[in-house]
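Protein Record: Sequence and Backbone Structure Tokens
======================================================
Tokens: labelled as protein backbone structure tokens, with as many entries as the chain has residues.
Question of interest: how does this chain fold, as expressed in backbone structure tokens?

___
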Amino acid sequence: MTETAPVRYAYLGPEGTFTEAALRTLPGVAQAELRPSATVPAALDAVRMAEADGALVPIENSVEGAVPVTLDELAGGHLQIIREVLLRVSFVLMARPGTQLEDCKRITTHPHAAAQCRRWLAEHLPQATVLPASSTAAAAAAVAEGASEFDAAIAPSLAAEKYGLAMLATEIEDTQDAVTRFVLAARPAPPPPPTGSDKTSIVAFIRDDHPGALLEILDEFAVRGVNLTRIESRPTGDGIGRYCFSIDCEGHVNEARVGEALMGLRRVCADVLFLGSYPRADGARIALRTGTTDAAFEAAAAWLAALKQGH
């Protein structure tokens, strides 16, 4: 599958979510068929079952941290990340036309959104009750449908446009620099060539719970000069103390330092699941330490080969 190509995108819905807003930043999306899914597992299963060519799902937020359901679903295998999207998160208080700010006594939104707007709500609507919804867009839809128990919703501006709601207040998030990272998952295929600004994602399953198990994993990256950008522990479901580690690192599997790190992990771990090498959304170039370039690895291999031949 090529980056220009998916003609069918699944995404975490309903319409009007931040995920849809992120999806609409991808090239070629205007010609694609967009399919909202009720849950992250449903979006990713659509790819696994060839009902969609790619699925965009949230994986982490700069305020709330990782999205556990996405990490767990990716650890289930049969998927590969082909790109990432970063989207600044900005929330809007929206209601049916004619509603005034002081009328908003019962507000609905996703719990993560409520957490990111806590101070604004305490200052401007201290008497309001915030009720949970399955997503910010679902909250907006419920208000638009005239659900009597809700006066307003907190959601992205796209939801106000989708559902015909009036925006009573914008940029109500407590942290103006909040960013959500999304990943586009497809069925497994050879990764694209390195760009010099790449990430590689894996899941490492420890062989057994013992002192230094995590250090063994970290050492494989550290001794080869590979920087980690994210590491999360997740239970495998096989019993207490059984964990895997979801890891993002700088670099591409085709680069010697990353490839050798993965081989090292394969020796010390029960299993290593490769989730893809793909371009970084921020385009940041990777500064390599001395001795960690491909040329340095090739020179070391040539030196060892000469030793074996008695030179």
About this structure: The first strand starts at residue 8 and ends at 12. The CA atoms of residues 7 and 31 lie 7 Å apart. The chain has a mean pLDDT of 91. The domain at 190-311 is CATH 3.30.70.260 (Alpha-Beta Plaits).
